[in-house]
Design a protein that fits this description.
It is a single chain. With 553 residues, the chain is mostly beta strands. It has a six-stranded antiparallel β-sheet, with no helix packed on it. A five-stranded antiparallel β-sheet has the order 1-2-35-34-33.
Length: 553
């Protein structure tokens, strides 16, 4: 997309107000002036960021967090002091410059991290994978160095969190490989023996024991854009360029569900914090919510004007942190957390009305979802229980949900269809069962899927045609704001902020409502002592360049 398609720079927002308060773009830390190596702008892969929280800090005053990101041929590793301090961009903890290839994806090993050492895996545009320790600036091992395993770009790379040494790499070829960091690669192209085939997924193991890769997954005839493990690490979901969402049991290799976009590739996905739903986005410019319980789509949202690059659930507003947003229809409006005045020009009108149903009852937000894309916009979505009920039984289920809220006002408990299904599927997965056949309705004793009536075939595959999309629950965006001068490549929700990364190299930190006051105070206090300096002034202050030398792959 050309830069002119993004509109005027003045359209870029620096704050917006939603139900839980006002989000503001923090002025610090800033990574805007990082010196970079020359790169071909047309070949630069998407810029991604990873955060690392170290264990065993030397003292309470030590900066325990790190941030790592790739820009062109460079890979940067910096301390992350939080939102109230600046970072000297001329002094990274480590910087790598690669020749002949670009870093495309990376992931930290959270199982073995410590103050002295951390394992980082990096995938490259030409296929190799590097294992290194950025704290000690050591390259530990190279995998697929001669591209005998796969010659295509590494698209997504992740450590297997249930182990300390295994990691997965997905490639543009449609294959995903399991590596063991302690094993060497074969000196010749590996040979495989098929272990399991389930639908389109074929899993094969390396015939050479004790060599990498341990096994190979054939997921798609086209590239794998992203894969993610479920919160309990038993299922893995794949978003591929052929438009498919595939959900596979990681232990048995069985395909337990799949869905296909009507056209275009599927670029991104995210699991809900409780593992009951998967949100996807891609080249159809819409987001779709897929139910793990029903194995079918239940909702869709239209807001983006171009491809959706990244989608994330905000687990700090629901799930792990145990917090839930709620809006009450009273004379005081609907603010759930304050932080923004009624005169804010960026307030989205109608937020309160959308959050309360036609009966005027309490409507808790079940999930907060964020998406970013090629249109340089950030879109936030609040999902309610009513949005996640499949269309065929929505009438009675919606009535039950309204009754549940009414009873909750009088201090009485009520098990809604969704909560019953949630408990059932959690127990089902924990028991190790492969098939998920629990129905998320209280008025039907059979599955909601009827062949031919909902776009599904005899195998349960649902294709999102125009008619199927019209039958899904329509979700309205909570916020739709332009936040960048270039298309957005990454979105990360943290406890204190949301991190937005764009292809021009800008990394923006949006402070949550509870942090905005402290950020403003810190900004005022540091104006005198943190006057911005040019890179030439910063370099001249010490008379030398302290950036570590680059590594050539």
């Amino acid at each position: 997309m050309a830069a002119g398609h993004f509109g005027k720079t003045s359209d870029i927002k620096t704050q917006f107000t939603v139900r839980d308060g006002t989000y503001r773009q923090a002025s610090r830390p800033s990574f805007d002036r990082i010196p970079r190596s020359p790169s071909n702008a047309l070949r630069i892969p998407p810029i991604r960021a990873s955060f690392l929280n170290l264990k065993g800090a030397a003292s309470s005053s030590s900066v325990q967090e790190r941030i790592l990101f790739n820009i062109g041929r460079d890979l940067f590793f910096y301390p992350f002091p939080g939102l109230d301090k600046q970072v000297d961009v001329t002094r990274p903890l480590d910087k790598r410059v690669y020749k002949g290839t670009y870093p495309t994806c990376h992931d930290f090993n959270l199982m073995t991290r410590s103050w002295e050492s951390v394992q980082l895996i990096i995938g490259f545009s030409t296929g190799p994978v590097q294992l290194m320790n950025p704290i000690r600036r050591e390259v530990l091992r190279l995998f697929n160095e001669q591209t005998l395993i796969d010659k295509t770009q590494a698209m997504c790379i992740k450590w297997v969190q249930s182990t300390e040494a295994e990691f997965l790499v997905a490639h543009r070829s449609g294959y995903m490989y399991l590596y063991n960091a302690e094993l060497p690669c074969s000196s010749h192209p590996p040979h495989y023996a098929v272990t399991k085939q389930s639908g389109d997924v074929i899993v094969s193991h390396n015939k050479s024991k004790g060599k990498n890769p341990v096994c190979r997954w054939r997921i798609s005839q086209t590239g794998i854009n992203q894969f993610e493990f479920s919160p309990n690490l038993k299922l893995v979901a794949f978003a591929s360029q052929d438009g498919f969402l595939r959900v596979v049991n990681y232990e048995t290799y069985e395909v337990v569900g799949q869905m296909k976009m009507y056209f275009g590739g599927l670029l991104c996905l995210a699991w809900s914090p409780d593992g009951l739903y998967i949100a996807v986005g891609g080249e159809m410019d819409v987001i779709v919510i897929w139910s793990v319980v029903d194995r079918q789509p239940v909702a869709q949202g239209e807001a983006h004007r171009s491809w959706v690059n990244v989608i994330r659930f905000d687990s700090y507003l629901y799930g792990h942190a145990g917090r839930r947003l709620s809006v009450w229809n009273d004379d005081g409006g609907g603010g759930g957390g304050g932080g923004g005045g009624s005169g804010d020009e960026d307030r989205d009108e109608g937020d309160e009305e959308e959050a309360v149903n036609h009966d005027g009852l309490l409507q808790p937000v079940k999930y907060r979802l964020g998406s970013v894309g090629q249109d340089a916009h950030l879109v936030l979505w609040d999902l309610f229980e009513e949005d996640l009920i499949s269309g065929g039984v929505s009438s009675k289920s919606r009535s039950l949900l309204r009754a549940a809220r009414q009873l909750s006002l009088h201090g009485r408990s009520f098990r809604t269809p969704t909560t019953v299904a949630a408990a059932a599927v959690a127990n089902h997965i924990e028991a190790g069962n492969e098939e998920l056949t629990v129905t998320a309705t209280a008025d039907s004793s059979s599955s909601n899927r009827v062949d031919g009536e909902d776009g599904s075939d005899s195998s349960g595959l649902v294709t999102l045609t125009a008619s199927v999309m019209q039958e899904l629950n329509a979700v309205s965006p909570l916020v739709n704001k332009r936040v960048s001068s270039d298309y957005v490549t990454d979105l990360i929700f943290r406890e204190e902020c949301a991190v937005i990364v764009s292809q021009d190299g800008a990394i923006r930190f949006w402070a949550r409502p509870k942090c905005t006051d402290s950020i403003d105070a810190a900004s005022d206090e540091g104006k005198q002592q943190d006057q911005p300096r040019t890179l030439a002034e910063q370099a001249g202050s010490n008379g030398r360049d302290d950036s570590p030398p680059g590594t050539v792959v």
